Amino acid sequence: MAKIMTLHKLYVKKLKQIVKDSGLLPSYVARRRSAERYLRGEGIEIGALDHPLAVSPLAKVRYVDYISKSDSAVKHTQLIPDEIVEVDYIDDGFTLSSIASGTQDFVIANHVLEHSPDPIGALLNWSRVLKTDGILFFSVPIGEKSFDRGRRITTVEHLAEDHELCLSGKQELFHARNLEHYDEYLSVSLVTIRKNLGNPALTPIEKAEMLRRFRDEPFTDTHYHVFSVDSLKMIMKFLTTEVDLSLSIVEFVKSKGGLEYIVVLRKK
Ligand SMILES: C[S@@+](CC[C@H](N)C(=O)[O-])C[C@H]1O[C@@H](n2cnc3c(N)ncnc32)[C@H](O)[C@@H]1O
Ligand SMILES: [Zn+2]
């Protein structure tokens, strides 16, 4: 059975490569182009999983994730285990408590910000670990082009409230607010994910059990927030002018044919 699964994964991988080489599907070319242009020296990539950013030989990357490579392989059974990066720092990528301030030439986080319950807090920490002139390179999926289609788009006001509540230490209130995000994820995103995989919809009992587990866990990895191109633009404008992130925008680029947008910022 295990052998059949491995053969199946290899077959799927080969098929994906053929489609990729054909140029029919949107690719990560914009990520590579911006990485080549801006990333030099030593830095970290948060949540690389099986898609570490391709960087030039002038950049040395260490990998941060909240779980190890083997735990990720268990969690994401659809992935080929050997393609998942070895994690150098097992740490919460939104607080980065194991990384000293002002030590990194760059921070990379592709498709990670939407997993943060407090994106402003995450961005402040990403900025904190950068040296002056260091580069923050992140990308987010565009909600309506992903399995999050149909969910509410996160506003600037919402992020400001999340950050305030997180700072206030009112953990129970913050958790209750995040439970709403998770409920929406289960009711919209997971329905699409399961449909695409050919799996039946969650039963009400299964859904209730997942919500119960969320309540009991300190952190659940999910898409808390959802961005559109306009909301992302507004959020970045607000954060670089109204909040002291100490970052200025260098590039705002459409990537993967509009499925995601890349934001490149420089530490002042
Ligand atoms: C959707 S994957 C992104 C994979 C890859 N970067 C890409 O662009 O496709 C999200 C990654 O973020 C990681 N992640 C989620 N929450 C995290 C946290 N609190 N701290 C560190 N990593 C986290 C996950 O384990 C996973 O590796
Ligand atoms: Zn929120």
H/E element order: HHEEHEEHEHHHHEE
CATH top level label of the largest domain: Alpha Beta
CATH architecture of the largest domain: 3-Layer(aba) Sandwich
Tally of helical runs: 8
At the fold tier of CATH, the topology name of the largest domain is: Rossmann fold
Structural class per helix/strand content? Answer: alpha/beta
Q: What is the residue-averaged pLDDT? A: 94
Distance between the termini: 55 Å
- Could you tell me the number of beta strands? 7
* Helix percentage: 40-55%
Provide the number of structural domains.
2
Which keywords apply here?
binds zinc ion, alpha/beta, 7-stranded mixed β-sheet, single chain, Rossmann fold, binds S-adenosylmethionine, 8 helices, 268 residues
How would you briefly describe this protein structure?
The chain has helices at 2-22, 29-38, 69-75, 119-129, 156-168, 171-196, 204-216, 229-241, and strands spanning 41-46, 59-65, 89-90, 104-110, 130-141, 247-255, 260-267. The protein is an alpha/beta fold. Helix 3 (69-75) links the parallel strand 2 and strand 3.
Write the layout of secondary structure elements.
Elements: H1 2-22, H2 29-38, E1 41-46, E2 59-65, H3 69-75, E3 89-90, E4 104-110, H4 119-129, E5 130-141, H5 156-168, H6 171-196, H7 204-216, H8 229-241, E6 247-255, E7 260-267
Parallel strand pairs: 1-2, 1-4, 2-3, 4-5
Antiparallel strand pairs: 5-7, 6-7
The structure holds S-adenosylmethionine and zinc ion.
S-adenosylmethionine binds at residues 46-49, 51, 64-67, 72, 92-94, 110-112, 115, 221.
Description:
By secondary structure, the chain is of the alpha/beta class. The chain folds into 2 domains: 26-142 and 225-267, Vaccinia Virus protein VP39 (Rossmann fold, 3-Layer(aba) Sandwich); 156-216, no CATH class. It is built from 8 helices and 7 strands, in the order ααββαββαβααααββ. The protein has helices at 2-22, 29-38, 69-75, 119-129, 156-168, 171-196, 204-216, 229-241, and strands spanning 41-46, 59-65, 89-90, 104-110, 130-141, 247-255, 260-267. Strands 3-2-1-4-5-7-6 form a 7-stranded mixed beta sheet, sandwiched between helices. α5 (156-168) packs across α6. It is globular. The model has no long low-confidence stretch (mean pLDDT 94). The structure holds S-adenosylmethionine and zinc ion. S-adenosylmethionine (SAM) binds next to β2. S-adenosylmethionine binds at residues 46-49, 51, 64-67, 72, 92-94, 110-112, 115, 221.
